[in-house]
Write a structure and sequence with these properties.
The protein is built from nine helices and 15 strands. The protein is an alpha/beta fold. An eleven-stranded mixed β-sheet has the order 3-4-1-2-6-5-9-10-11-14-15, sandwiched between helices. It has a two-stranded antiparallel ribbon with strand order 7-8. Helix 3 crosses helix 4.
Length: 372
Amino acid sequence: MQLLLAAVLAASTLVSPQLSGPFGVGTHDAHLVDSTRLGPFQPSKNRELMVTISYPAQRHGHRAPWLSPGFAAATDPIISSPAFLDVPAGTVDWSGTLRQARVDAPPIKKRWPVVLFSPGLQAPREFYTSTADDLASRGYVVVTVSHTYESLAVEFPGNRVVYGGIDGSPETMKKVIDTRVADMRFVLDKLPSLHKWADTSRVGIAGHSSGGYTAGETMVHDRRFDAGINIDGGMEHTGDGGTHAPGRVVTEGLDRPFLLFGGDTDTRELSHVDTSLTRTWADFWPNQRGWKRDVHLDDGAHLGFSTDLQWAVPQIAAVSPERRVGLTGTIDPRDALRAQHDYVAAFFDLHLKRRGTELFDRPRHPGVRLVE
């Protein structure tokens, strides 16, 4: 895996990690409109979404930009701000940084299992490209979803950018998760028209942070989803000052496979044996009737989990060491990426492809342990 970890390149472009699977990856975006549903945050219009499809493909065509020029221009002041990276605006050439996936590359003509991916709260789907592309390189059609009016920003055709902004009230948090569940179910409905070679008889779902809660809650509502992963996300919509409000995935559990993949916050960990961050994993654990594992990545911070920040932030010299640790932890970024990519793929290989693995029997990566 080729990563530059020491300094910013002269042109302020970054180097995305090489794909670990045997296949090349193609990619394209799609604009979807749900004609049966009004937008919960914009009730005067039908719900509209942008998604990115990554799929096994021939290695033809030009590589996709990490962020499109329009999206980069709209979000660089936010991403660079003191609230996030705390670097001067324009430090990184976001659109000059290239993914490993190639735009509209010819697909490999085979029926591939499907994984839908939901980002963290207010996070754009564009920050999860390495997770999606790497999984696609191992033989999956992966669809990442931007949840409009909640996501930091969503760029639609015609250079139209819709910014997100939500409060933290319990009522809004409940609306967020209900909207996300409906979004993921709608995207699965549309998938046959998005990619001809998607096998919708084998469907997984994964997500980061609130996206992990989304994954579990979507499985409660829709049995078409066969297996799911929660990456470092509490499974509650409690909101600011609200009473504890766990999701149905917590109180009812699932009869299908579900993986918990957690990291650290300061001296606390997210696992089913530590309730200092959230009690939802502990409450979920005895109610889960299907296959389950709790995998922990020591010294891995919340925003490094499954996001492109894990490989990008160490390359940005202007980010302070303290900010870097807060965003991506103290674990070696290369070790973190290998572990994350391997465990996500191994889980779906096991449950969607029926391919055996020993990764859930004993750890094989630095920093990884199985929480009993």
